[in-house]
Amino acid sequence: LFSIQSVPKKKRRLVSLGRSTRSVPPSSAPPPFVDPEVLTAQLKDKDDRISLLETQMAAQQAGYEAHRRLNQQMMEMMQRMYPNEVFPDVPDP
Question: Region Disordered: what ranges (predicted)?
Answer without folding.
Answer: 12-35
